[in-house]
Amino acid sequence: MKLFVTVIGLIMVFEGLPYFAFPEKMKLFLTQLLEMPSESLRKLGFFLMIIGLFLCYIAQRTSIFQ
């Protein structure tokens, strides 16, 4: 449970960092995001999930990150 809460905390830090550092750029990015077709967003989300799963797999299977 400790690891889970730590991971959630780090996700929140990384998600909040662009809004804190570049608020005006994030507003522009979000307006562009609203104009993108839903299918493109779905493909991007799927691609990012696959990369995330792959990184988790590599981190668990190799001794590089120990």
Question: Please, could you describe this protein's structure?
Answer:
- The chain is mainly alpha-helical and 66 residues long.
- It has two domains: 1-35; 37-66.
- The chain is 86% helix and 0% strand.
- It has helices at residues 2-21, 23-35, 38-61.
- Helix 1 (2-21) crosses helix 2.
- The relative contact order is 0.06.
Short description:
This protein is mainly alpha-helical.
The rounded distance between the terminal residues' Cα atoms is: 20 Å
Q: What is the total tally of β strands?
A: 0
Which geometry do the CA atoms define?
extended
Q: Domains counted in the coordinates: how many?
A: 2
Main β-sheet description: none
The H/E string reads: HHH
Q: Residue-averaged pLDDT, rounded? A: 90
How much of the sequence lies in strands comes to under 5%
Helix-strand makeup class: mainly alpha
The number of helical elements comes to 3
User: What are the low-pLDDT stretches, counting only 5+ consecutive residues below 50?
Assistant: none
- Binned, the helix content reads over 70%
Show the helix and strand layout.
Elements: H1 2-21, H2 23-35, H3 38-61
What are the defining features of this structure?
0% strand; mainly alpha; single chain; 66 residues
